[in-house]
Amino acid sequence: MENQYFTSPLIAAALAARLAEPDGPEIVVVLTERSPNGFDRLTMDSARRGLIARLRAADPHRRLRVLAPRTPAGGPILVHSKVAVFDDRLLRVGSTNLNNRSLGLDTECDLAIEALPGEPHDLRREAIARVRDGFVAHHAGCPRDRFEAVVRQRGSVRAALDDPALVSPERLCAVVASRRGLLARFIEAWHVGDPVGTADLWRPWRRRRALRVRTEPAAPGDAARVPSRSEREAVREAASPDRAHPSPHPAPVREREPAVPSGPDR
Q1: Closest CA to 184 of 29, 25, 45
Q2: How far apart are CA 186 and CA 23, in angstroms?
């Protein structure tokens, strides 16, 4: 996965469940080493540090790699793309970030290409794998054909990434979850700057409840739990701009009478 942001607890819960499986997938995430502006560093980077720390703790088989690309001169590269490749089966490219607001507030558009099992889809699977290996090889600064050959030989993208003769750690460096202070922990706990929907956009105290009823952390080896109908209704209620109006249309705006007839509005 290659993305600008990586803060969604729902995505993290799904990844943690797969990392706990004895025969689960390898997961490679490519991110910007450090956000370029102060607001994103305060909000997105703070929440990301905690999420990465939790995923590393949930990875007993050491199949997770979280990496940041650098230029040949060692300068940081701003990752703004939103790409996900799942084995050689699914390629997804679009505008969706891996944060709360992209999954529930912002309007996004993604394109997905799927290769189904069977001989008729062999060429499509090969094309998806080449896109995957090409992305990683580009960031690693090595020829794609050479990277593909190592992946085929070892049967593992992770093994190719861990080979210093193939991938320089100066070009793809590990993102380390640094120590978080009280402010970073507060921002992470309340998802400051990362709303779930319209209802908690200016009401962050609703945010944790909306996330909590969407899903629960999966137990090791279990798939993420699907919310029940009553829980989905609770999410819709929490996301409603006005609970007194169950209609999907927003309530009409009513003008308040001024407290002082001849004075300004208060």
Answers
A1: 45
A2: 35
